[in-house]
Each structure stands twice: as C-alpha cells, then as structure tokens.
Amino acid sequence: MIPGKRSHARLPVRIGAMESSSARSGGSTRREATRQKLYEAAVTLIAEQGFSATTVDEIAERAGVAKGTVYYNFASKSVLFEELLRHGVGLLTASLKEAAEGTARAGGGKVDALDAMIRAGLVFIDRYPAFTQLYVAELWRTNRAWQSTLMVVRQEAVAVVEGVLREGVAAGEFSDEIDVQLTAAALVGMVLVAALDWKSFQPERSLDDVHAALSRLLQGRVSGRV
Amino acid sequence: MIPGKRSHARLPVRIGAMESSSARSGGSTRREATRQKLYEAAVTLIAEQGFSATTVDEIAERAGVAKGTVYYNFASKSVLFEELLRHGVGLLTASLKEAAEGTARAGGGKVDALDAMIRAGLVFIDRYPAFTQLYVAELWRTNRAWQSTLMVVRQEAVAVVEGVLREGVAAGEFSDEIDVQLTAAALVGMVLVAALDWKSFQPERSLDDVHAALSRLLQGRVSGRV
DNA sequence: GTATTTGAACTGACTGGTCAGTGCAAAAAT
DNA sequence: ATTTTTGCACTGACCAGTCAGTTCAAATAC
After folding, report:
1. What is the per-residue pLDDT across B76-97, written as a single tens digit (0 to 9) for each?
2. What stretch of H or E contains A126?
C-alpha cells in the first residue's frame, strides 16, 4: 500500500461550496455534502437513462459512496428522486423571480421582464442541462409515484411566468386578449426546447447568440423584415 | 375418452373477423393487425410509465395477446419501441408536409404555411397524445439503444419546419437575420409544450382556441395591444 | 364437397439474471 | 459520545427472453 494513496481514495474533497451557506441550520454539514454528491450523481444518470433504468448501485458508485449511505440519507430511490426534483426546481424558480424583479428595479417594462426570464432560463439550462432533461422527460408522465410532487413544482415555475404576463396585461403592456396560461406554457416550451436543442446539437454556440434568436421570436420580429 | 368432448376443445370458433379486411397485400393481414394492437398497447403504457418501467407482460396483456406473440412479432422490447417511434413520427411528418403544401397550393405565404403546420401539430397531438408524450420524454436522453433512430426521426420532422423557414427567408418574407435551426426548434417547442399543457391541464378547451393563442404568439401580437 | 396437410401465427409455463431494499458490525468523523 | 459512513452478504420480487407445443385457415388431395 503506497502511503498517502488509499485504494478507495477517501479525500475530504470540497466539491460544491456548501460549508459557508447557512452553516448549521437543521442538519450537519457533512450529511448535506453527501446528499449533494448523491443529487449530482443521480441527476446525470437519470437524465441519461431514465429513473427505472438507473440502479441505486450506480448512483452510489458515481457519488463515491456506499450503497448503505444512500439509504441512510434517503428513505428510498423514489424519495431521493423527489427531493432532487424539489431541489432543482427551487433553484430555477428563485432564478426566474430574481430576473423579473431585477428588471422591475431597473425600471424596465414587462417585455424586459420576459426577456430577462428567458435569459435566466437559458443560464439555468446551461448550468444544469441534465436536470432540465430529466425534468422534461418526467413532466407529462402519469401514474408515477412522484406525480404530485412534479405537479406542485411545475406550477411554482410556470406561475412566475404567468404572473409577469398578467401584470403586463393589467398594465396595458400586453394585449388583454392573450391567453395567459397557454402563452406561459408556450413561452416555457420555446425556451426549453430551443435550449435543449442548443445543448444537444450545437453546443458551441454562445448563450448570447441563442438568447438573441429567442428574443427576436418573442418580439415578433420574425415575419416581416426588420 | 368421452365422445364429443376433447381435452383441448378444438372448435372452429370465429374469433376475430379478419377475413374480409384487405385480403392479401404484402404481409398477412392477421400479423399486421396484431402488430397494430401491440403498438397501441405499448404507446400508452410507455407514455405513462416510461420504457423501462413498462413490462412486456403488461403490453401483451393490454393488447390481449400472449407474451410469446410479442416476441414472434418483434425481436425484442427495444425493437418494438423503435418501430413504434418510426411509425409515429412517420405519421407526423407526413401530416406536416401536407399542411405546408396545402397552403402553398392555396397561394398562401410562408406565414400561412407555419400557421398550418402549427395546426397540423396540434391535430396530431390531439389524436396521439400518448405518442407525443413518449416522444418528448425520450428525445433528449443519451445512452439509450434507440438513440440513433430517434435522431434520424427527429431530423425528419424538424427539417420540414426548417425548410419552410428557409424558403420564407429566401422569398423575403422572413427577416434574413433569423436563425433557422434555433427558430425551428423554438417553434416546435412552443407547440409541443403548449399542446401537452392543454391536454394535461385544460383538456376541455377546443383546438381552435389553442390554435388561436399560438397564432397570436407566432405573429408577435402579444406585446402591444392590437 | 370432404379430408388431410402445411406453415405461419400464437400460447404460456419456465429460466436465469437483475435489482431494490435490508441488516449489521466495524470504522471514521465530528 | 454520538452521528455518519462503510462494506458486504443476503433476500425476495420481478422481468426479458425462450421454447416446446397448440391453433387455425388456406392449399392440396381425394
């Protein structure tokens, strides 16, 4: 055995930067770190293969953790997945809200808010492509254990977009004939699919580039030369 | 042995009523009918639960067929799924092409073609919601057996939209600054997500209604009162 | 027309492997 | 001293795929 080198290298590596964030507030930091590792391992595996095709052994292995640890931290495979969903969508909605509020503080209109949210969406997908992939894949399924969780969490995110649209209508900035719910869904779809396409098929393009293309579409500058 | 009573009763019972339907044309009609039943059973089950969570036994049971029959007709579970994908996307692309050509014959412009394709997409999703669901769920996965099939099949569908956009740019009907590939993806996403939302959360609405909302978005009649 | 043959289509019990989840004693971290 | 993690053997359910045997309708023979 080479000194300083262990077979299953057990280095206390700092992966994220969790330690300073809300130090002490419920659970120990070590536990939080393991959970984070498990999330990261699970999200990519499940995005690639789907929930059922991904085994707990794989998740544990990729996280560099024993199988027992998975069950020490989560009641079951589905619970791990559900908490992962909640965690991820939490990040997204926070980011969307911040984007909308940012433009409001800067005195921008609702179109600016929508545009900022499109960018926030792109940034999110750029940072967490696997999560996005997985989310899309599960969203419209029925008969699954985490169905209700997914519902709640979806609503949180879409509600932010709907809110901005509604405010825009109230302020007279958008036509009052628009269908808020459907338009919100369509906008989300636009960003989602374009971004996944970007990441999958032309990853070399810059975020600004993609953002510009979507902005143009949003502002109806497609038909008719500018 | 009791006369008139055999252990495995061999009565010439009429089960289906296949005999008159298109007698002979390529493969046997019976076989084709079973395959169709299997497609239908598989598409809903896989849409609901995902590929891995759906068992061959379930598919067979829902199709009203023995498990062996599945393997008589398809080499494996994945092959059944791949052929199902090809079959479904074939229907979609045909429908999109027809929509675009229809407006061309009627002397409409490319905006009309896009609008007609949006409608065709909605009609398709209205008729085959399960297939759409399943398609979306699998499209951005990686590391799966049918990955390449999915790629080919996706390109066929998106190419139709891209084609119309390109023609529109060439004809000066669309700004030549649009990004064809990204815009096509965004449009597909818009329709896809809005339609799935419609089917999942407000199924009572009419197709015309949904189509109107998307048309408005396409033509940039969202920002600014009309 | 009736009997027999043929081959494609179908059946369902069975097999071999996989995997979620358990149990627990020892080790490590805090 | 307590919490957390490890390592690993084990179980029981579940499931893809197989295969020897069965059904049936059309073709051929009588």
Report:
1. 999 999 999 999 999 999 999 9
2. helix A110-127
